[in-house]
Design goal:
By secondary structure, the protein is mostly beta strands. The chain has one helix and nine strands; from the N terminus they run αβββββββββ. The chain has one domain. Helix content is 9%, strand content 46%.
Amino acid sequence: MGKLYSILAGGFVAIVLALGAGPAAAVPGTGNGQGNGPPFDIVRGGGEFPFVTPFGRLQVAIQADGIKKKGVASGSFSATIRGIVNIDISGSITCLEVDGSSVVLSGIVEQTNSGIAPIGSGVIAMGIDNGAPGPDGTPVDTVLALPQGRPLYTCPEPLSAGVQLTKGDFVTHDGDFRTQGQLP
């Protein structure tokens, strides 16, 4: 049962790890590029969502601030999980890919308070910037984050749109507006 608990907690940590805070050194665009703004990919923001496990409910909070200029990703992420476990992780972004309003990023864990997400392990996150929160402040963005044995330096295609945030907002900017949504 302890091993199952560790595996489940690791999955939750990964969800949290996938995104985090740190200066991107640029102001994000509107999420769709449309030929406006800087010629590089950006993700910035934070969000919260509950995660229910067989062992209890977790509250997950994530932050991300990343940029990719001339093919080089930089920035940071952080995540906290509160509930049946209390985990705090943060690190540097190792890859970032924004296509329209869809984003994928990976990072390396550089600070942790848990063996579930050790230093040097990786995270991958993906989501969709669906615009600003609604008139009542309800978030509209989605996020999915998973642990990785090691960080990725080339981002894969997104596997999922993620889960709905209950608080927060992520803003993306696709710096290559000429190729948004096009197949290779």
